[in-house]
Design a protein that fits this description.
three-stranded antiparallel beta sheet; 212 residues; 8 strands; binds BIS(adenosine)-5'-pentaphosphate
Amino acid sequence: MGRFVRSRIVMLGPPGAGKGTQASALSERYGIEYISTGDVLRSNIARGTPDGLAAKRYVDSGELVPDDLVVRIVREHIEGMKGKGFILDGFPRTLAQAESLNEFAEIEVVLNITLPESEVVARLSGRRICSACGRIYNIHHTGERSTCECGGSLVRRGDDRPEVIRQRLETYERRTRPVIEYYRARGVLREVDGIGSIDDVFRRAISRLEEE
Ligand code: AP5
C-alpha cells in the first residue's frame, strides 16, 4: 500500500512542546525545507538587521512580533523555494497570519503537538541550543554539557527565563490557540500527543502524517 506523504505542513503546539525537535527531524525524513520563524527572528536579532531590531523587544519579552513582519519573512522564503515542500515551525501564530498564509500556500496538514503546562516549563528550563549549528539539547536527558557534537558552544535561549516563559504561555493561550480551531474547522488538523520520548513522539507524528 502506498504511503500518503504530505509536503506542505504546519507544526503547532505550545512553547516547549517539541515543535523544533520534531519539525527538523521530519524535514530530514521527507526531504522538505524546515522553516522556523523563531530561528529566523533570532538570527536577524543576532546580526542586528533592521528586521532583528524591529523584532527584538517582542522576542525578549515573550510577545508576538507584528504580523506584517513575520508574514513577509515567510512569504519571501516560500516564494523563493519554487514549489519545494516545507514544514513551518512557529507560524502561523495568529488568525491574521493564518489568513495571510492561505493567500500564498495551500497547507495540507497541521500537526498540533499537545503537552501539559508543567511539562512545558520543565523542558524549557533544561533546553540548551548549539550556537553554531542550532541543534537542540536538554540537560535533563544529556546531563550538563557545554559543547555540541559539532564543537559549537551550548547556550540557553534568552527567552527561556521563568518570567518570559510565563509570558510566552499566556501569549500562546490568548493569540495562538484560536489558530488550532481555525484549522480544525478546515479539516486539516491532526493532534499528536507530545508526552513520551522524542522517538515516541516522532513515530506518532509520522503515522499522523502518513495516514489518509
Ligand atoms: P519560537 O522560537 O517559535 O518559540 P516557541 O514557540 O516558544 O517554541 P520553542 O522553540 O520554545 O519550543 P519548541 O516547541 O520548538 O520545543 P523544542 O523542540 O525546542 O518563538 C520565539 C519567539 O519568536 C516568540 O515568543 C515570538 O516573540 C517570536 N515569534 C516566532 N514566530 C512568530 C510568529 N509566527 N509571529 C510572531 N512572533 C513570532 O523542545 C523544547 C525542549 O524540550 C528541548 O530542550 C528539547 O530537547 C526537549 N524535548 C523535546 N521533545 C521532548 C520529549 N519528547 N521529551 C523530553 N524532552 C523533549
